[in-house]
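Supplementary Methods S3. Complex input for the adenosine-5'-diphosphate-bound model.
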Amino acid sequence: MSAVEQHGFQTEVAKLLNLLANSLYSNKEVFLRELISNASDAIDKLHFLSLTKPDLVKDDPVFKIRIRADKDQHTLTISDNGLGMTLAEANEHLGTIAKSGTEDFLKHMTGDAQKDSQLIGQFGVGFYSAFIVADKVTVLSLSANAESPDEGVQWESTGEGTFSSGNIHREHRGTEIILHIKDSESEFLDTWRLRQAITKYSDHISVPVELYEEQYEAPKEGEEENKDKQPKFDYVQVNDAKALWTRAPQEIKPEEYNEFYKHLTSDYQDPLTYAHNKVEGELEYTSLLYIPRQAPWDLFNREQKHGLKLFVHRVFIMDDAEQFLPTYLRFVKGLVDTNALPLNVSRELLQESAVTRKLKKALTKRVLGMLAKLAKTDDYKIFWAQFGNVLKEGPVEDYSNRDAVLKLLRFASTANDSAEPQVSLEDYVGRMKEKQTAIYYLTADSYEAAVKSPYLEQLKQKGIEVLLMWDRVDEWLMGNVNEFDGKKFIPVTASDLELGELENEEDKKQREETQNENKDLVERFKQALGDKVQDVRVSARLIDSPSCVVAENGSRMTAQLRRLLEASGQKLPDERYILELNPKHALIAKAASQSDEERFKLWADFIYQQALLADQGTLKDPAAFVKTLDTLLLD
Ligand code: ADP
Ligand code: MG
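Predicted complex, serialized as structure tokens:
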């Protein structure tokens, strides 16, 4: 090798390598899946390039992956005649982790092997999984684009922080990964063991995988079996080499779908559900779509790569084609294979193509249909816990499917004693009171704050169900959808809570009476609080609480959203609220009984501040509040 250079791994890689050995001990054979996947990817890429440059493959036109164990050398070699790597590519791709958010991911590591192995599985360790079974890995490669055999590459590492690499002479294109198998992992030198694992991981990929194994020759007729004869070895194809999605769905077993999913995603778990469809006619395509069981840790990172694998006429074209699904379905994995796009389609072309738009429409419908089906099973809870918040982006992002997505949403509600979102809008509408025309909801900072909210008191008494929400995205969502099934969404925090027909004559009369009786009291509060409040009113919604604050037209921002916006640098005007009083409450009566105006002012302030505190969980000036309280207590 000429000019061997020593390199340090990127810090993240070094950390990852350290974790690997301990974390994946229970499922060591996954290294085979990863290395076969990489070989098949490299072949797919070259296949794609060769469409326009057939010369690249002319001296070695039959793509294949070969696996050979050598018991004497204690090595296992996985080789392919795919794209290969240049020295610069090897240094970059085998020395760093390109995935965005790796550092973030590593922060999630707990040191608990069990938990970490799940994270690692999810992350997809790829090439580095070789170090689970090998104490040294040698990579030999020649890029299909190389000008001369002297641009061959040798890369080597023991997986302990550094690797060496340099140019070598190599005659044929493609990559050879030589694993120097650890003494404790000798099982991976046994061909029966390899055959078993390889079949599992490669049956569904379209490239032939060949295993070097002993050929058993039956003795010829009349001949004795020759015990001393040297065993004959040769490469034998062990997989079907038929791309899974091209087969008929009814012939494919669930295990095969699941294995293919793992090949596609490097996820260690089975998917939650999948849908395989072949569509003929004007727009011909096959899609194989999966819903994962677990969200990636960076689901909310907008730069996270997502999208489907695109094939045209069964030829791999690109990964992460995000054009085929809307962003709120970015958790969907899978592939689409179509005859309706040209083989030389680029990302830019995809963006503008009418075919893409049609496919996107069709695939979006497919996924929504898949979810509607899943929603009828217990697994939907798992789905909702993982991806519910992403799906909530749907009704706003995708107007044409708004109703379909709204039906898939789940909420907590006053009808259940549980923070687990289980109620669909259809459930809610189905249970509405006879004269009820609207869907009532409450956004708060947490489930606890929501269930205990004073805004619910009157509705509870009337037996009206209220949807409870406390996720960041809820306020934005509810601010952007007006109705479902012809029923308006109304926040119970609205300053004039419309109860419509739900309020009977009796209620109305009583409300007006209470208002008249307390005119003076309201006026006194207004005087005492001055500019601090926008208005003071007698409340119809309070039963057990002395007071609450509401904002004009219900556009009250939760404290959570306020903090979020302020943290992002937005300047928000101080919010001025309408203070609502419950004159039947002992505390309000006590305030009203104060004859000294200075004293009353303290009471008014106290009542206003505690309403704010109950609503928002914090106060601008807690010390002043405590002081007021102390003064009143020492009365
Ligand atoms: P991923 O496959 O998710 O990109 P890996 O860790 O499995 O991550 O591989 C890292 C990169 O190394 C690949 O993206 C590819 O560029 C390169 N690579 C790995 N194996 C091969 C191979 N057999 N042929 C060519 N390139 C390879
Ligand atoms: Mg890989």
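The chain has a mean pLDDT of 88. The CA atoms of residues 520 and 592 lie 10 Å apart.
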